[in-house]
Automatic annotation (TrEMBL):
<comment type="similarity">
    <text>Belongs to the NAD(P)-dependent epimerase/dehydratase family. UDP-glucuronic acid decarboxylase subfamily.</text>
</comment>
<protein>
    <recommendedName>
        <fullName>UDP-glucuronic acid decarboxylase 1</fullName>
        <ecNumber>4.1.1.35</ecNumber>
    </recommendedName>
</protein>
<comment type="pathway">
    <text>Nucleotide-sugar biosynthesis; UDP-alpha-D-xylose biosynthesis; UDP-alpha-D-xylose from UDP-alpha-D-glucuronate: step 1/1.</text>
</comment>
<dbReference type="GO" id="GO:0048040">
    <property type="term" value="F:UDP-glucuronate decarboxylase activity"/>
</dbReference>
<dbReference type="InterPro" id="IPR016040">
    <property type="entry name" value="NAD(P)-bd_dom"/>
</dbReference>
<dbReference type="InterPro" id="IPR044516">
    <property type="entry name" value="UXS-like"/>
</dbReference>
<feature type="transmembrane region" description="Helical">
    <location>
        <begin position="65"/>
        <end position="85"/>
    </location>
</feature>
<keyword id="KW-0735">Signal-anchor</keyword>
<keyword id="KW-1133">Transmembrane helix</keyword>
<keyword id="KW-0333">Golgi apparatus</keyword>
<dbReference type="GO" id="GO:0000139">
    <property type="term" value="C:Golgi membrane"/>
</dbReference>
<keyword id="KW-0210">Decarboxylase</keyword>
<keyword id="KW-0520">NAD</keyword>
<dbReference type="Pfam" id="PF16363">
    <property type="entry name" value="GDP_Man_Dehyd"/>
</dbReference>
<feature type="domain" description="NAD(P)-binding">
    <location>
        <begin position="142"/>
        <end position="386"/>
    </location>
</feature>
<comment type="function">
    <text>Catalyzes the NAD-dependent decarboxylation of UDP-glucuronic acid to UDP-xylose. Necessary for the biosynthesis of the core tetrasaccharide in glycosaminoglycan biosynthesis.</text>
</comment>
<dbReference type="GO" id="GO:0070403">
    <property type="term" value="F:NAD+ binding"/>
</dbReference>
């Protein structure tokens, strides 16, 4: 058996050689027939002569071409319709950035959202921004957001559908003031003292953090460092910055009522100066940044706010309402708490000093109008109702009454809640808290 196989082998080899020679001869004949000159370009030959009709055949087979055309049609329809769908969705207050991506983002900032989208759309220059940016809600930091005014501002921003980050060191702020937002994914609370730097990515910064009552601020003069840190943050991330300054910048005024143009009459070394001069310095820093520093490019994107349009200054006058500290030391909170506790009302000095008082919701409306408006300020924010007291203390302003005509005209803002309506709301809040406090003490 072995012998037979070995004898067949040369024959098989011969046969194979014969076949291959025939194949080569046939190919040579074909080449000659097509007139192709170079026998060394078989690839060119293959592309031009065979694969083109073959790929066309492939396309036409099994309706492949039809499927490709339908796919292209669906894709183009989606991209054409997408801008108009996004525009429709901006009527939803939660959807922020898209609106002016398609209207060119006017220079005016009737709403802050339009400003933010203005920059992104102009950067991409085609009216479309990445979906992650377009669908992001306006993100706002409120420093001192767990305090009296801050927490009411947070309520308004949350109700409007913004993402809100509260920074508070709880020196005078209380978790109870914002506890109703816990669990809401749009709300974050950070325990932090603004005298230390912090880095966050936000669109707006309402800077309220600073003890505002004489009994508190002398222990915690945060104005200068806190403001510097927040201005630095705003500049770095391209956010709009609103400083809540105070009527105290007018000191014991020689001009009455006080207009924003009045420079004030402040004792630089008195008991109140850490607050008064601190806020004056905070205003100076804010205006220096405003004049000198344009916000930088952020990650290569154009900054959201135009040059010279990223700071705001509000001068807050005497404000009252629910959530004021019970022992805040200020006249309205003192009188209400004293009356409820049936204690004697404390009247300082000769009691001839005057103030005007505004309900907290009016102030918050004014702050938001200022932040979202077109004017830098400063603006006096207060009502024009006045109350007279009897006695007095060191460096205590004898009279104070704001001229709010600038805010009325340029922010279209004016207070709505008269003392008669606002005070009972505050009294109700104080009564509940004082009763709870008393109950707590009784239980101990
Ligand atoms: O129990 C009191 C408390 C206060 N007063 C007097 O009432 C007047 C108002 O005092 P408040 O402490 O309520 O408020 P002030 O006007 O001194 O400062 C306030 O106004 C502007 C805000 O920006 C400041 O943060 C805030 O401290 C003062 O003349 C004060 O001496 C009383 O007569 N009795």
């Amino acid at each position: 058996m072995v012998m037979e196989k070995s004898q067949e082998f040369p024959q098989i080899m011969k046969q194979l050689h014969k076949q291959s020679t025939t194949v080569i001869q046939r190919r040579d004949e074909e080449i000659a027939a097509t007139g192709t000159t170079s026998p060394y370009s078989p690839k060119t030959l293959k592309h031009t002569t065979r694969s083109l009709p073959r790929s066309i055949n492939y396309l036409f087979k099994e309706q492949r071409l039809l499927f490709i055309l339908v796919g292209i049609l669906i894709g183009s329809t989606f991209f054409i319709l997408q801008p108009s769908l996004s525009r429709i969705s901006t009527s939803d207050p939660n959807s922020t950035l898209a609106r002016s991506s398609f209207n060119g983002g006017s220079g005016s900032i009737a709403t802050q959202r339009e400003q933010v989208s203005f920059s992104t759309s102009s950067f991409f220059n085609v009216g479309r921004v990445p979906s992650a940016l377009r669908q992001r809600r306006l993100r706002i930091v409120v420093t001192g957001g767990a305090g009296f005014v801050g927490s009411h501002l947070v309520d308004k921003l949350m109700a409007r559908g913004n993402d809100v980050i509260v920074i508070d060191n709880f020196f005078t702020g209380r978790k109870e003031n914002v506890v109703h937002h816990f669990g809401n994914p749009r709300f974050e609370l950070i325990r932090h003292d603004v005298v230390e730097p912090i880095l966050l990515e936000v669109d707006q910064i309402y800077h309220l953090a600073c003890p505002a009552s004489p009994v508190h601020y002398k222990y915690n003069p945060t104005n200068v460092m806190g403001t510097l840190n927040m201005l630095g943050l705003a500049k770095r991330i391209g956010a709009r910055f609103l400083l809540t300054s105070t009527s105290e910048v007018y000191g014991d005024p020689l001009e009455h009522p006080q207009k924003e143009t009045y420079w004030g009459n402040v004792n630089p070394i008195g008991e109140r100066s850490c607050y008064d001069e601190g806020k004056r310095t905070a205003e100076t820093l804010t205006m220096d940044y405003h004049r000198g520093a344009d916000v930088e490019l952020i990650n290569g994107l154009k900054c959201p706010y135009q040059k010279n349009d990223w700071v705001r200054i509000a001068r807050i006058f005497n404000t009252y309402g629910p959530r004021m500290c019970l022992d805040d030391g200020r006249v309205v909170s003192n009188f209400v708490a004293q009356a409820i506790r049936k204690e004697p009302l404390t009247v300082y000095g000769d009691g001839k000093q005057t103030r005007s008082f505004q309900y907290v919701s009016d102030l918050v409306d004014g702050l938001v109008a200022l932040m979202d408006g077109e004017h830098v300020g400063p603006f006096n924010l207060d009502s024009s109702a006045t109350i007279e007291f009897r006695p007095n203390t060191a460096d205590d302003p004898h009279k104070r009454k704001p001229d709010i005509s600038k805010a009325k005209e340029l922010l279209n803002w004016q207070p709505k809640i008269p003392l008669r309506k606002g005070l009972p709301l505050m009294v109700r809040d104080f009564r509940n808290r004082i009763l709870n406090e008393d109950e707590g003490k009784a239980r101990k």
